[in-house]
Amino acid sequence: MTVHHTLEATQLVSGYGGSPVVKGVDLTVPSGRISVIVGANACGKSTLLKTMARLLSPQSGSLVLDGQSIGSVPTKQLARTLGLLPQSPIAPEGIAVADLVGRGRHPHQKLFRSWSAADDAAVAEALAATGVSELADRAVDELSGGQRQRVWIAMALAQETGVLLLDEPTTFLDVAHQIEVLDLLTDLNRAKGTTIVMVLHDMNMAARYADHVFAMSGGELVASGPPAEVMTSELIARVFDLDALVIPDPVSGAPMVLPRGRHHVLTDTVA
């Protein structure tokens, strides 16, 4: 049975050293759907995600998970409900792939409970889903950037949480592996009803894979809704300071952003 979790922010302010980066954000994460946070560099996307994962405490406002202030949720309970893949995670030196992925099972361990067949199955499934089963015995620090990224995603999958937050999950991946990872997350969402929130830089990938888009600018949430409603030329200009044409993606039908640029504007020609 799929359990749908709720995650809601009200007038959320967070940042570092007393300086706010996220400024008065109100949002409700659609339960059981894929949401993508978009915006220019340094607009507060990662800070918002870290706050949602409780790596940062709100300076003011509230963040509520399943009707309870996220700050009051016991740590292990939170880790069984909400998983995070941060930007550029660091693995312990020399750790093997299977051991790192196995760490995703720690929230499910109880006092005096040994490793179980269910843990083995979860790790094996996560390794297979991300295409890294053959790397299970390799040291993580011997892998390429793309391979390491898929291993970290496998660890997040092994955690088997109802809510999964991912900060730039396609970093270091070539286009083929980007599609594989985003397809994998879509499969997870559709098969298990996992609520997924991720930060993506690629606007077209965001529009294609998101059910819901949160657009940020200057630490504020400036638009929220389905990609077809949010991803407009006007929003792209406001958020990215970019002159772009938005047309239907011929593959998915989602909005497709085509930057105009100064040197690629069609002009009338005479034959």
What is the CATH third-level topology name?
Answer: Rossmann fold
Biggest β-sheet, characterized? 6 strands, mixed
- CATH C-level class: Alpha Beta
Mean pLDDT: 90
Give the strand line-up of the largest sheet: 6-7-8-3-9-10
Q: What gross morphology would you assign?
A: globular
The SSE order reads EEEHEEHEHHHEHEHEEHHEE
Query: How many structural domains in the coordinates?
Result: 1
Query: In percent, how much strand structure appears in the residues?
Result: 25-35%
Roughly what percent helix? 25-40%
Count of distinct strands? 12
Radius of gyration: 20 Å
**If helices are DSSP runs of H or I spanning 4 or more residues, what is the number of helices?**
9
Distance, first to last CA: 65 Å
Show unreliable segments. none
Question: What's the structural blueprint in terms of helices and strands?
Answer:
Elements: E1 7-16, E2 19-29, E3 34-39, H1 45-52, E4 60-65, E5 68-69, H2 75-81, E6 82-85, H3 97-102, H4 117-129, H5 145-158, E7 163-167, H6 175-192, E8 195-199, H7 203-209, E9 212-217, E10 220-225, H8 227-230, H9 233-240, E11 244-248, E12 255-259
Parallel strand pairs: 3-8, 3-9, 6-7, 7-8
Antiparallel strand pairs: 1-2, 1-4, 4-5, 9-10, 11-12
Helix pairs in contact: 4-5
Please give a structural write-up.
The chain is an alpha/beta fold and 271 residues long. 31% of the residues lie in helices and 26% in strands. A six-stranded mixed beta sheet has the order 6-7-8-3-9-10, sandwiched between helices. It has a single domain (7-259), classed as 3-Layer(aba) Sandwich (Rossmann fold). A hairpin with a 2-residue loop joins strand 1 and strand 2 (19-29). The termini are far apart. It is globular. The mean pLDDT is 90. The chain has helices at residues 45-52, 75-81, 97-102, 117-129, 145-158, 175-192, 203-209, 227-230, 233-240, and strands at 7-16, 19-29, 34-39, 60-65, 68-69, 82-85, 163-167, 195-199, 212-217, 220-225, 244-248, 255-259.
